[in-house]
């Protein structure tokens, strides 16, 4: 008889809620990871995140082998894989961490039903956030839709208890002793290996100057840990604890933005694909495909926009200030539906997080909860003057900037501004 720990977006052994509880169960623990076809089938074959996950999973497997155990790795659809596992092993309990995106919630509801029907315990734990779902609510028990009061309560509630690490190390001896389980190759699953430099978990040296540097894309002032929070190679409790110790309040509040957007998505799942404010679905987007292509490729003739898109295409990451500028440009200057931009980011960002991405895009389009009013339109030139005054960032990503080779602006700023104001006003006139 065994317990199973099902890894999903929590790919580490240290400070892991579900692993800790599994190890304290009555049975030895077999760790499992499923390469989920429902997710993989939608991704391009050269998706860099799949390479990152694959490498991380192999590391995890090696680490578990050092404890005399192994990682069971499967490829397929969870609803097909699980009955097979139950035939192979005498499973008494399944332990896993909460997951909040719409697909994951549905998958776990189905799992709960299936395992219960098989008389197997299914236990899930909070792990990827400090406060989840219904832990931060207004006095009337409804969710916050504005960040500042959310954060006030989030911060007031935070104490040592919530950042204490789960001492999994002490119990790793309770892993199932098993040898050399075979596993599928990356190519067998239809993916290519991408050679990208994935960011390392090393942010301590950034925290002191974070507040001063974070808004300037030419300075490497942010921590690049999004990818590690996304796949759980870094525990959020550790990150928050480090923020508190370094007294880096601004960085702490950024970690809380992540939870704010997760809470919003959990309470308002429609906002994944519809405007949070319904009236914004009436906007008559222009959706010009050639202009969209120029934006994707970084050929709009607006240097700060092009620099951002090229950074994204080449590295899988873009600076936050520039994410705001390119998102505003796509929706306001080019009048292209925010969902097109959201989907492009979803495909390219290593740190892609549905809640934050949808939140960021709806904020830029003006359709989100707590968004900038629609008439506030970023002026790319002024943004450049303020945040990249010496064109350091622009020159790095757009080498032809300032030469004749550089593209002409795809649209004139004043014209674009007046056009978007008219279109938005028409859609929202009955507010
Ligand atoms: P740091 O500045 O060092 O911050 C540390 C961590 O805090 C980040 O890794 C992230 O987990 C969290 N964080 C910081 N800012 C935000 C924010 N505004 N909202 C939510 N969480 C935040 N972030 C994602 O993690 N995934 C996305 O898919 C994503 N899409 C975005 C799309 C748009 C249009 C915009 C405007 C922002 C988006 N963001 C997204 C938020 C933000 O840009 C990134 O989190 C940040 O740039 C990542 O870089 P970093 O790891 O160096 O962050």
TrEMBL record:
Gene3D superfamilies: 1.25.40.80, DNA Cyclobutane Dipyrimidine Photolyase, subunit A, domain 3, HUPs. It comes from the Bacteria. Coiled coil: none annotated. Keywords: Chromophore, FAD, Flavoprotein. Signal peptide: none annotated. The keyword Lipid metabolism does not apply. Pfam families: DNA_photolyase, FAD_binding_7. Residues 1-130 form the Photolyase/cryptochrome alpha/beta domain. InterPro entries: Crypto/Photolyase_FAD-like_sf (IPR036134), Crypto/Photolyase_N_sf (IPR036155), Cryptochr/Photolyase_FAD-bd (IPR005101), Cryptochrome/DNA_photolyase_1 (IPR002081), DNA_photolyase_1_CS_C (IPR018394), DNA_photolyase_N (IPR006050), Rossmann-like_a/b/a_fold (IPR014729). Its cofactor is (6R)-5,10-methylene-5,6,7,8-tetrahydrofolate; FAD. Belongs to the DNA photolyase family. This is Deoxyribodipyrimidine photo-lyase. It comes from Pedobacter riviphilus.
């Amino acid at each position: 008889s065994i317990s199973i720990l099902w890894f999903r977006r929590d790919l580490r052994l240290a400070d892991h809620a579900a692993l800790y509880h599994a190890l304290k169960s009555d049975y030895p623990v077999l760790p499992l990871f499923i390469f989920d076809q429902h997710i993989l089938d939608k991704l391009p074959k050269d998706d860099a995140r799949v390479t990152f996950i694959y490498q991380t999973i192999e590391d995890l497997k090696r680490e578990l082998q050092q404890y005399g155990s192994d990682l069971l790795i499967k490829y397929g659809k969870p609803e097909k894989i699980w009955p097979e596992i139950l035939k192979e092993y005498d499973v008494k309990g399944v332990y896993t961490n909460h997951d909040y995106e719409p697909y994951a919630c549905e998958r776990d509801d189905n799992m709960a039903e299936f395992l219960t029907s098989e008389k197997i315990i299914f236990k899930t734990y909070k792990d990827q956030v400090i406060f989840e779902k219904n832990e931060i609510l207004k006095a009337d028990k409804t969710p916050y839709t504005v960040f500042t009061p959310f954060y006030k309560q989030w911060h007031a509630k935070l104490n040592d208890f919530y950042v204490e690490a789960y001492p999994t190390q002490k119990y790793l001896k309770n892993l199932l002793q098993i040898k050399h389980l075979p596993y599928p190759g990356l190519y067998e699953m239809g993916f290519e290996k991408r050679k990208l430099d994935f960011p390392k978990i090393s942010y301590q040296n950034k925290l002191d100057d974070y507040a001063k540097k974070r808004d300037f894309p030419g300075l490497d002032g942010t921590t690049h840990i999004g990818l590690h929070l996304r796949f759980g190679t870094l525990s959020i409790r550790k990150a928050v604890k480090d923020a508190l110790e370094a007294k880096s309040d601004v960085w702490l509040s950024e970690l809380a933005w992540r939870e704010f957007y997760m809470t919003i998505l959990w309470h308002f799942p429609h906002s994944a694909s519809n405007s949070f404010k319904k009236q914004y679905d009436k906007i008559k987007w222009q959706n010009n495909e050639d202009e969209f292509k120029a934006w994707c490729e970084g050929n709009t003739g607006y240097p700060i926009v092009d620099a951002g898109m090229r950074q994204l295409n080449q590295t899988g990451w873009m600076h936050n200030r520039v994410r705001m500028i390119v998102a505003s440009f796509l929706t306001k200057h080019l009048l292209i539906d925010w969902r097109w931009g959201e989907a492009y980011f979803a495909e390219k960002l290593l740190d892609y997080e549905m809640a934050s991405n949808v939140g960021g895009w709806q904020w830029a389009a003006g359709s989100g909860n707590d968004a900038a009013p629609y008439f506030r339109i970023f002026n790319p030139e002024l943004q450049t003057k303020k945040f990249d005054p010496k064109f350091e960032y622009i020159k790095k990503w757009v080498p032809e900037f300032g030469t004749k080779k550089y593209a002409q602006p795809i649209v004139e700023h004043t014209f674009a501004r007046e056009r978007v104001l008219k279109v938005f006003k028409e859609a929202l006139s009955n507010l």
